Amino acid sequence: MISSFPSQVPEHKVPPNAVARIIEHLTDRWLQTRQFITSEEGIGVLKCGLAYLLGSLATFIPMIAALLGPQEGKHIVATITVYFHPARSKGSMYKALICAALAFLYAAFISLTSMYVTIYFHQRRMIELGHALVLIVFVGLGFGFLAWTKQKMSDPLVNVACSLASLALIVVLTKEGAIQRGSVSLAKVSQVLKMLLMGIGATMTVSFLVFPVSAQKKLRSNLAVATRSMAIMQSTITEGFLRRTQDDFQGFDYTGASTRLKKAHGELDKLLYETKLEQYVAGWERAHFHEERLVQWAHGIVHTTGALHSSALLAFETLKRPKFADHPLDGPNADASTATRNEQRSAIFAADIPILQAVDLGMLETNASGNDQPVSGQLVRANDGLVPESSLVTELFDSFVDRLGPSMRSLTLTLMNISAEISLGLSLDNRVAMSPGSPAILTQAIEEYREAQKEAFGRLYREKCDMSMNTFEKEAYFKEVAAICAHFSYSLLKYGEQLGELLTILTAFQVATAGYHRKKSWSWIKFWRRDPSRSQFLDRSNARLDPRPSLTEIAPVYHTELPGASSFERPSRLQPFRDTISRHIWRTLNFFRKDETIFAFKVGVGAALFALPSFLSFTRPMYLYWKGEWGLVSYMLVCSMTIGASNTTGYARFLGTCIGALCSILVWSIAGSNAFGLAFLGFVMAICTFYISLLKGQGPLGRFIMLTYNLSVLYSFSLSQSSADEDPDERSGNNPDITKITLHRVAAVLLGCIWGIIVTRGVWPIRARKKLKSTLKLVWLRLGRIWESDPLARRITNPGVAALYMTPEDRRTMQSLLSDLETLRVAARYEIELNAPFPDTAYGKIIQHTQSIVDDLHALDLQLQGIPPSEQQLSLLRYTSRERQNLAGQISHLLGAIASSIAYACPPNHVDLSKAKYSRDRFLATIFMYRSGNETSSSALEETYSLLYGYVLVIDQIIGKMAEILVNVSRLSTGLEGVVG
User: Fold this and answer.
1) Membrane topology type, per the record (predicted)?
2) Per-residue DSSP letters for 253-317?
3) Which terminus of the chain has fewer Cβ atoms in its 10 Å neighbourhood, N or C?
């Protein structure tokens, strides 16, 4: 036994290893904590905690509490610091100050006007009528206007200002008692003003003195991140295109860059407005319009990056499944499909038989080169030694890449280097630094690429005669590969040109931020004077952003007057007046039909009903005992436009109220009425809740935890410092009863939340699912209108004007609608329906495919911008105008049919894609017939045909996306998503 003892000694040496692991774990945790504290997010949370601590001093310090008067409610100062928190930029704080001032002015106007109204009726012994007017006009309409403003502006700071105004109005109208008595009391109004000034002052002091954040720096940082991310995406897309693989699109570098770009791009408009406020206050407004140009550039190149990605995906899809070879007029199945096409022609477009008959005779009997041998015989002989489809297309694509690849990689490397330099130059403080040789380097690289592009395509088309293009199948493959290469090449060229535009903007910005130009001016105060340089710039930019001609240029209308019409029908002189009145009536009725107006009306009615007990003598004591004013505040905070949003906020506020109540009881049991202990524990509570609000994205949850905490703990401290006869119902002896106080507040808050959900869901409910469908319908109808615009027709009538499918304004509107779709999709997830769960997967795919269609359109616009109109191209456009209009009409009809299917929840059985495909085939047939009859020498790039070939490829891809959309729409209408998805 003695000899066995030493063998057991190593087992007792394990604890040191465990201690080492514990120490290592604690060290890692400390490093993570220190890294968080020193980060921008950690500093923001600490600033919020500090501002809350300063706000709570209005309750804990007797001298400051005395300034606010004997009334209760001093904890509102701390509540203001929770909503107007300092974790924002200086520009955002300026905006918060403006919003808070407007909120106070509105609350003061409503409060004082309602007091004088009740005095008027009280003097005439009709105070009940005065109370009714206050409920209907000042509570109903006043709170309804706040709700309408929140929805119309859709701005977080405006929402906070409306919440602050509703808080002040509720305290004055329902709790203070002057209106109920029919008298004027300025004490509460002045107290609200003092609390507002204290809360905003504490927040602004912390925001401006403790690690201030500049919106201009954040804007520059976001632009630098966006530029760097787009450079990575462009490089990855180009390399994937050259290597014929999209595996890198799922890699860490590309997905990370895409995520960073989406986040940075989404904040640009907000940061631009905050930067404007900072620069105007600092007197540097001259530099602001350069910032505007930078943001406009960023919006444009983000769409170009999406178009470049769409072009690459189109190439990959075409290489996997060639489209032109499947065309019945030039593929290996030409003879077999002739009868089928004849049936389609008789069933669909009987009027177009002569055109297709001519194409059949010319195409099916002889080839384009003039050989008098039937195509069927050529195909039979060619099929014996025919290269497999994918191998032939890949071989042709590789021959293109061998010539275009080096120039593409060279341009990509130059774009990467320039983007890196731009990102570094944008990161500097208060100035922009750029190398003077960068514009020349980029211009040279773009010109070299353009020349290499022309030379590569020219050599390929010259060598086409030497290739074995003895069948229509090979000819179709060659044209298809040439089209996808040209399509991608123009998108890449446009990306490089837009980067050159950025260098021009930065050069002007560099001059504006150097030397005497940095002199402060504050010329914006002289509002009666207009800056001519700025107005000229805006006029030029607007003309450039909207190149679409007027309606009279597109389709001139000639009015003819019937003979003798004036003899029996004369317009009345009152007709213009009647038309004006009719328009005003129609606009007014349209205003009342809008969702924002309906929402405001029902919120106002709900607020008036909730406030009614405070005006009735037999229910007012119960209203005051259960703190009904805080229930009304909760009601105003919970009400949201859609049912899903109300359910989300209602659940978060319900949970936050319960957590806040438990924390209040725990804190009071620990510190009691000790001011130092409560201040420290309140600071800790603020740190935790702001971490939840700012970093975890649970704003309503964190804010309601602190709201309940303030209503319970800070009110209990104020009650402990007052006389014993004040609020005896909430005391236990001479000390406040924290349990009863918390119960009253929690009951009031929960009642307000429940009432808000009842009003939102029971009175004219606005469902997120319904708005999601209507927004999708609007998007598809807009896309249909865009297709019907047919910029190729405008290119014929006015070749000197750049005609596009989507102007920059159209792209911004479309992107805004797509963003709204994502927001509504999130809200719709929380709408509880008994019939079926929300089909989130199907809607996600529909939105994704719709975004792809928008990117395809922009990619086609880039090709329209890159290929200048020529005589031969205009001749071809005129020759194919009828078929192109039919094809555009079919696409527009399909988009409208899809919109109707999802709007009315009917299966899309009536939607027939074969008509669109047939119109595409007719369009291709017309091109081939034109080509067979025109043997003139083509240009180096054969731009006459490459534009329309790219047009057909994009249409084919859009038809494929619509087919996938139809599958998901069918799932929605039949309810399969609830089972499958």
Assistant:
1) Multi-pass membrane protein
2) HHHHHHHHHHHHHHTHHHHHHHHHHHHHHHT-GGGHHHHHHHHHHHHHHHHHHHHHHHHHHHHHH
3) N
CA distance 461 to 455: 10
Mean pLDDT calculated for residue range 435-453: 87
Tokens of 124: 């005439």
Roughly what angle, to the nearest 10 degrees, separates helices 472-512 and 389-426? 0
Rounded Cα gap, residues 781 and 764, in angstroms:
26
- Token pair of 202, please? 């504490």
Q: Is 555 exposed, middle or buried (0-12, 13-18, 19+ CB in 10 A)?
A: exposed
Type of residue at 544: R
Q: Which residues make Cβ contacts (< 8 Å) with residue 846, sequence separation at least 6? A: 776, 902, 965, 968, 969
Total H helices, total E strands in the chain = 41, 2
8 Å CB contact between 200 and 207:
no
165: tokens are 């105004």
pLDDT tens per residue across span 295-316: 999 988 998 898 899 888 888 8
Domain ranges of the chain: 32-212+601-762, 215-326+388-529, 768-980
* Spatial distance between the Cα atoms of 631 and 895, rounded to a whole number of angstroms: 47
Cα–Cα nearest to 273, from 313, 227, 216, 334: 216
**Reported pTM:** 0.80
Q: Report d(CA 73, CA 195) in Å as an integer.
A: 9
- Check the CA dihedral 485-491-495-498 and report its sign: positive
489 Cβ contact partners less than 8 Å away, ≥ 6 residues apart: 404, 408, 453
Question: Which residue, chain included where needed, has tokens 């797509």?
Answer: 818
DSSP secondary structure letters along 313-336: HHHHHHHHS-SGGG-TTTSTTHHH
**Which one-letter DSSP state was computed for residue 125?**
T
Out of 28-42, 134-148, 535-549, the most confident range is: 134-148
Paired tokens of 690: 């702001």
3-state secondary structure (DSSP) of residue 382: helix
Structure tokens at 286: 């001259």
Q: Are 422 and 294 in contact (CB under 8 A)?
A: no
For the four alpha carbons of 477, 480, 486 and 492, in that order, the dihedral sign comes to negative
The CA distance from 806 to 803, in Å, is 9
Rounded-to-integer distance, Cα 297 and Cα 499, Å: 9
Q: Determine the Cα–Cα distance for residues 947 and 877; give it in Å rounded to an integer.
A: 10
Per-residue pLDDT tens over the stretch 21-79: 888 888 888 888 888 888 888 999 999 999 999 999 998 988 888 888 776 778 889 99
Which residues have a Cβ under 8 Å from the Cβ of 851 and sit 6 or more positions away? 306, 818
* Cβ pair 191, 69 in contact under 8 A: yes
Q: 665-681 burial string, b = 16+ CB within 10 Å, else e? A: bebbeebeeebeebbeb
Residue 736 DSSP class: E
- Three-class secondary structure of residue 594 per DSSP: coil
> Vertex 432, ends 509 and 272: CA angle to 5°?
70
Euclidean distance between CA atoms 104 and 165, whole angstroms? 6
CA distance 396 to 474: 9
Rounded to an integer, what distance in angstroms lies between the CA atom of residue 792 and that of residue 802?
10
Cα–Cα distance, 782 to 776 (Å, whole number): 10
- Tokens encoding 428: 């500097």
Overall fold of domain 768-980: Methane Monooxygenase Hydroxylase; Chain G, domain 1 (1.20.58)
Angle at 468 between CA 463 and CA 469, to 5 degrees: 85
Strands 735-736 and 731-732: antiparallel
The C-alpha atoms of residue 749 and residue 626 are separated, in whole angstroms, by: 10
Q: Is the pLDDT of residue 948 over 90?
A: no
What whole-number distance in Å separates Cα of residue 81 and Cα of residue 87? 11
Sequence-distant (6+) residues with CB within 8 A of 325 are 331, 332, 389, 473, 476, 477, 480
pLDDT at 675 over 50: yes
